[in-house]
Amino acid sequence: MVNILKQWFDKTWQRWLKQRFPGQQTVTLDRSNIFIFPTVFGCCYVLLCLLLFLLGTNYQNNLIVLLSMLLISVFLTTLLKCYQNLAGIELTGLERGEHFAQQPLTVYCQLRAKKLRHGFVFNYKNQSQTLLDNINNENKVRVDIGPKSRGNHDLGRLTIASIYPLGLFRAWSHVDLSHQVVVFPNPLPHQAEFVAIEQAGRKDHSSATNLPAGDDFAGLNAFRPGESLKHVAWKRVAQGRGMYTKHFEQQVSEPQWLDLDQIAGNSLEQKLSFLCHIVNDFSHLNVEFGLNLAGKKLAVSSGNNHRLQALTMLANHGGGHD
Amino acid sequence: MTNSWLLGKPTIGLMTATYLVSLLALSHEVLWWVAMIGAIAIGWRWCYSVGKVMVFNRYLLSLICVAGLALLAISVTKSGLLITMINLLLLGYGLKFIELKQRRDVFFLVLVGILTVGVIIILYSDVLSAIKILPLIGLNIAILSVTCAPAMTTVQAIKQSAQLIAISVPLTVVLFLLMPKLPPLWDAAKSQQATTGLSDELSPGDIAELSRSDALAFSVTFDPGSQLPLRKQLYWRALVMDVFDGQRWRQSMDQKLWQQLGKQLTPMPPLPKTGGISYQVITQPTQQSWMVGLALPINDESEILRTPDQNIYATSAITATKMYRVTSYPSLMSEVVISDHVRQRNLTLVNGLNQQTKQWAIELRRSYPSDQAFISAVLSYFNQQQFYYTLSPPLLGENSVDDFMFGTRRGFCAHYASAFTVIMRAAGIPSRIVAGYQGGEWNSDVGYLNVYQYDAHAWSEVWLPAKGWVRQDPTASVSPLRIEQGLAQAMATENSFLSGSILSLAKHQNSPWLNNLRLSLANLNYFWDRWLLGYDKKLQYQLLNNMLGGVTTEKVISLTISCFVFIGLWLMWNAGFKIKRLSYNEKIDSLYLELCDELAKVGVRREKHVASQDYAQIIATRLPHAMSEVIELTEFYNNLNYASNLPATKSDYRQMKRLIKSLLNKI
After folding, report:
1. By CB atoms within 10 Å of each CB, which of A69, A164, B111, B365 scores lowest?
2. Would you list the domain boundaries of chain A?
3. What is the pTM of this model?
4. Strand order in the sheet with A157-162
């Protein structure tokens, strides 16, 4: 019951935020999007002021009353200072960095302020916090996010908060920087890949690369648990000569086509992971390649842009995350 | 969250400084071992911050806590509850240095620090202490600064905290001045603090003790209309003591009962039309209820009562500097009636003690049957025999008055008053001892009288038919200087004045510049007490009355609102809120856009993408008669925006306005 209520509240809150502060690439903090409230310490401080005031009144000691008034005045001054520390800061989400599934994400945000600002904490919802001591003219802040699954992600709202100058108030803002990240599959090295790379790297005579799971029979290997039963050499099993699997190879000559269907793997995710690793390595070695993901094709090419295109295709295959 | 904020030397440095200054301010109260535990905790914190020692053992810490609490519990009986509570606070404050694991621990430390400041103020509220207190508040705030902005250096943090305090001063002042002054919310009389000044029992040693202190007892300002009494008339009555046990004088049970139970109003005598002396007394905290006034003090405030023995008495103990108004009518003393009961009490002597004095008095009385003659004879006896005025008299035995009269013959006011009163009683004249202060130091520049603890004095009052209670001061017969010029002059030869305090400025009244310094400090203290510590409901009303010319609700409300508006603006301005002022370029732009709107009404619309040059042509074709104006205006406008590097000025703005006007006139 509580959970449902909490969810409902969270949903309403997010909807309200979205309505009021729609996502923008660059957000400037001002009085329309800054929240400010006393911290727990601030409340304790006010209680102490009240206590001192009572003490001073009761003992008719004007100096203590004066002390409590001074402390309350400092409290109010702090309210304005705390707000001013946040107001006028420009945040821009930076599109940079490559993110892989099951690895922590790192996103960057550009901050701009005309005057020196102090003591900030950044975090995405339910994520770890990043501390930033100062914003001096222009700063870049790195915010870490826990691992996310493969696909397209909207990072949601970044919370920027500060309790400067005295920790009595916390000013904060939930900004939506329209931060979209593409999380590529987690690259996993594939056994057969090394052979392929070795051959591609040598680039001698016909320079054919053998990729596993082709059409040409390559030989028999002892059966290992986990291998597809389709490839077991049942004849030999029947003859009582042990359990072997037939291995096929596909001879690929340059340029190479990386085909999802031809990669051995337990699951789609694993296959994509293998491909991701291969794409990275090929690009590293400047090998030209094309990509075929169940009909969706990426023309043969090379270079970093091509690599990113290939990785994005892998990320979005089958709808990706959302 | 990382803990990097804690490792910062500035934080630990500021915290240490704050703790040490607090300790220093409370150096009279702090127990030595509490200070030592604090020092150990701070030492450990420093070593830990540079990585020289390990985490503090939890069991050891608990052990220290328990041991500290036990020691404090033991010392309650010896040092009193208040001192113990202060030490408990300081112990916790010190030990907190070990327990600094999270940021909120630092915040907690600061709250304790601020509470300590409050404690310091309760104990010390004079100007010099206040000078120490302000930096202490600043240091506490600087700790917060450096905690919330870890990149700050110590100096920056201190600067920032000073700035925050400075910005907050106007609001503080307004709050302080305008906040309604509330009466005490509950009875604060049960203070555990040691009392200062006179107490309700008097043995000769008490006044000698007081005469060693140069602390201010109270200040007096006489009203302009009142005649300033002569110095030798300044007998500030505080307590009447009419019960003598042979050693000590004390207040009667009647008086004690009146204080504890009755407190019923003493009937107000009919006040004479003239002869009243009006003045204001600003008394330092005494933790007691008696108040001082010249002979027969009248006060009509509800929290001040008139006692049956012609004194004034506060309904609750004076725990802070307090100001009150009194009018004294010396002539009223003669109209006091004495009941048989009181007469009897004021004639009582303990049987079997001081027989020799009684005998002597009875014999002398035979030669002087008239009361007045008898009194004169006794006074001249003190004057002519070898009696000495000294602050260090020899000790007296069980028959203290006999020993004094016929043995030592050395003593000060309490000895003479005691002996005189006993002689009067033996001779059948009702008499009693009055304890209070005599004289004071007149400051003619500002116009106030400062009475110090060393002005404490005791004298006698005798009851004479038709004259009522008449003051008799035997000390004046022995040492007229004491009464006419004060203790410092009376003790000039003996060198015993303020012998306890070498550094006391009051001791060096003969050195001109030291004396000037002392008097300036006294002036400062007077203003401090009068306007800050003594700021109460009456002063508040007086201030508002002077400022507003009559206090009405509307005036006070509008004053309050305007003060807060002003302070709001001041705070906003200081916090960096700026009113955005349009530049002349922007103003000219908006003029141009207004013109476009005007022209659109005539039918010449300007689409957003159309440049001003092209728009000018459109206008020129549609409104040919205004062509020259349009061209001139557009040229001027484009010149300002694109050709000139300089920002537009006021004259440009005016020119633009003129051009637009002439164009619109044409249409």
Report:
1. B111
2. 20-184, 191-319
3. 0.71
4. A35-38, A169-176, A157-162, A117-124, A130-135
